[in-house]
Amino acid sequence: MTARQDFLLGIDAGTSVVKAALFYPDGHEHTTVARRTTLRTPHPTWAEVSMVETWEMTVHAIREVLAKSGVRADQIAAVGITGNMVGAWLVGVDGSPVRDAILWCDGRTQPLLDRLSEEHPGFMLQIFDATGCAMQQGCTLPVLRWLAENEPQSLDRSRYVLCCKDWICFKLTGSVQLDPTEACVMPGDTRTHGYSEAMFDLLGVRAYRHLFPALQPSEKVVGVIHQEASQLTGLNAGTPVVAGAGDVPASALGVGAYEPGIACSLLGTNFLNCLVTDRPIFEPRGVGTLFCLPGERWLRSAINVSGTTSLDWAIEQFCQPEKTASASSTELFAAVEALAMQSPPGANGVRYLPYLSPQGITAPVLEPTARAEFFGLTNEHTRADLMRAVYEGLALSVRDCYAVIPAAIGEIRLSGGAAKSTFFCQVVADVTGKRIVVPSGSEFGARGAALLAAVGIGWFETIADAVSLTPTTARIYEHHPESKAIYDAIYEIYGELRDTLRPVWRQNVRRLGQRSREIG
């Protein structure tokens, strides 16, 4: 590793927030800044953002992080970019946006996917067998098919279809490319780290293949800050910029997950549970997501789509005294954890299935009718038991997701809002029996992008070196054997509840639908 004292700039454009973060050569954060963008829903289930606003907020974030940090522009050695993945960011022949970007979380293509599944039996499994991913509505190729059928004029005016980070890279450098981490889940071919010609045909968008630019390695320098971007951002013209990676792979690098066997859980609204592997894993078939990491690594993931949502809901329902007495969110969560700790491991027999999303669950099984449950309640149970059961149910969902991935797990690295809780981290350690590592810092996507930039300019020889030589561990948790034994027994009950309730959930949804039609 070089002994330079320059800085790396990482940019992370999320669904509704653009972040700019400066990092020391050892990977530690120096200064971070966030600017919000406006999530637009012009129709139900749609999710769009202005490409112009995203660029403007990126400019503001870069200028602000430079001003706030006191770091000079000539101290920025390189720039790395990450962002929310897939969707469709259409760029016209003049370099301007054709329309607002359609995001990964947009649901407009579901009727299209339903129709294609009816017309072509096995359609969804064909996609999974190529990508290792259960199809999401906001992936790029189905969005293009929707545009072709409903907005062909937008595609006619387009020169490129990009992803979020690639739009920002284009505005900074004028270079146009995608990287393999995005191409694989468009859907593409995860085995080869690239586009899949078969997927263009399967989704019926062969006519628009020319809109997709060449792929470049995530760590490759693809351009430099050009003069116009320099004047806008305050960065020096000529500063190198690498291609970057999608936010999930970048976040894995940012928390130090690159060697096979290391797992990382990104604990936000969704609990995204990922395992690094040295080969692409396509089991269980039809469940979860398979990302490629930069280099010859893959990231097999299983998602609980109701993560911190469960905590927020439970606090709203059961913790009004704590809310009233707390002057900040930090005080509130400390008070809620203190309440949950009044109940012993096992929550005095209360179990919680954290399936609060109306979308049901996507792992360890795909069950759109799944619903959250409290089980085992008597009139002797307290608010403390309910809150502890929620924490434990979320930790059990982490174990449940990793259990479905057919590969050995070493340690688990945690990041995201829930990872700030020492109580919850210890519960995860006790439930899984794994060493839990919480990295220092907060902007792990931006950090991963910055590490790719460091490789691109030669600070590190390989991505593995960049990750291993910039340790950022803040806290480590080991499991308590006595608590692990309790949770092993509870995990069996947890799985039995999930499996036993599946036909009941389906019947419930059918009856609710019938009742709605009768009332209507």
Question: How would you describe this structure in keywords?
Answer:
520 residues; alpha+beta; Nucleotidyltransferase, domain 5; 3 domains; seven-stranded mixed beta sheet
What would you say about this model in short?
With 520 residues, this protein is α+β, with helices and mostly antiparallel strands. The protein has helices at 51-69, 110-119, 123-131, 140-150, 152-156, 164-173, 180-183, 197-202, 227-233, 247-254, 308-318, 320-325, 329-340, 383-403, 422-432, 444-456, 463-468, 481-519; strands at residues 7-13, 17-23, 29-36, 48-49, 76-83, 89-92, 101-102, 158-162, 221-224, 240-242, 245-246, 263-267, 271-277, 289-293, 297-304, 351-353, 373-375, 412-415, 436-439, 473-477.
Straight-line distance between termini: 68 Å
Radius of gyration: 23 Å
Fraction of residues in helices? 40-55%
Strand order of the largest sheet: 14-15-13-12-18-19-20
Q: Kindly name the structural category.
A: alpha+beta
CATH architecture of the largest domain: 2-Layer Sandwich
Main sheet: strands, sense, barrel: 7 strands, mixed
The proportion of strand residues reads: 15-25%
